[in-house]
Amino acid sequence: MLNMFNLEGKVAIVTGCNTGLGQGMALALVKAGAKVVGVNRSNPDETAALIKEANGEFVNVMADVADSNTPNCVLSEAINQFGRVDILINNAGIIRRNDAIDFTEKDWDEVMDVNLKSVFFLSQAFAKQVIKQGSYGNIVNIASMLSYQGGIRVPSYTASKSGILGLTRLLANEWAKDGINVNAIAPGYMATNNTEALRNDESRSAEILGRIPAGRWGEADDVAGPVVFLSSDASRYVNGYTLAVDGGWLAR
Ligand code: NAP
């Protein structure tokens, strides 16, 4: 049974894995047997060291996911280094906070480009390669509670993450027949750089914590099991689904 979760021989691309959830997921995939190709705009030395400690293999492509050349660079580097690709984790993401009335075009475009547009084009390049290989593929997009809820003061983030939920379904519909499963993980409130401002705001932080049935902020480790499941043969008949990993937030 546990063999279904084994990722030995598989190659996983993980965007934004120098820190936070991306780092946790890269390490989880390595511990399940995968080799990892990171895509980072900041140096992923800490991740490289953790993977080395776990006796895993890791190469990094230094790139901005919003750059339109990135998908081709990433795929050719992955093929050069490891000869194939099997898993894509679209994790890199940014957030901008401001009242909707004052929100700028720059804050709209930057977030949409990183959180949504780059996910589509990297997925497209990955799918072309998997189809060429004639193998199975697994794509896991990182959604959010704001794929389901409106949020406040984060208009482009909500639009991008709601878009991720729909895009996950569309790509699953088109590519299931090619053996490519596309799903998403919607993390709840996790203690990473992304939520630093929220956690530093005492009243917002208390409000949020008070609503989480599990009674704590999530950690990178909490997405380890779900990402291995959605990257493995264990989820072969799961298509187009967004799995909340939220300590019960949405159940309230
Ligand atoms: P994080 O610590 O801020 O990590 C975000 C990662 O994305 C970092 O590695 C960051 O690199 C990278 N990144 C951002 N823009 C990039 C670009 N243009 N090119 C390449 N890499 C880029 O936050 P996190 O919480 O781990 O976020 C990971 C994902 O989970 C994001 O998609 C986020 O929206 C989502 N999420 C987080 C939460 C939460 O509560 N934390 C909840 C729901 C969803 P730098 O270090 O260089 O900035």
CATH class group: Alpha Beta
Shape: globular
Give me the secondary-structure category: alpha/beta
> Can you list the ligands bound to this structure?
NADP nicotinamide-adenine-dinucleotide phosphate
What is the radius of gyration?
17 Å
List the domain count as a whole number. Answer: 1
Number of strands: 7
Distance between the termini: 33 Å
CATH level-four homologous superfamily name: NAD(P)-binding Rossmann-like Domain
**What string, H for helix and E for strand, traces the elements in order?**
EHEHEHEHEHEHHHE
User: Could you give the order of strands across the largest sheet?
Assistant: 3-2-1-4-5-6-7
For the record, the CATH architecture stands as 3-Layer(aba) Sandwich
> Unreliable runs, pLDDT <50, ≥5 residues?
none
Mean pLDDT: 98
Which percent band covers the strand fraction?
15-25%
Helical content band: 40-55%
Largest sheet: 7 strands, parallel
CATH-defined fold name: Rossmann fold
Number of helices: 8
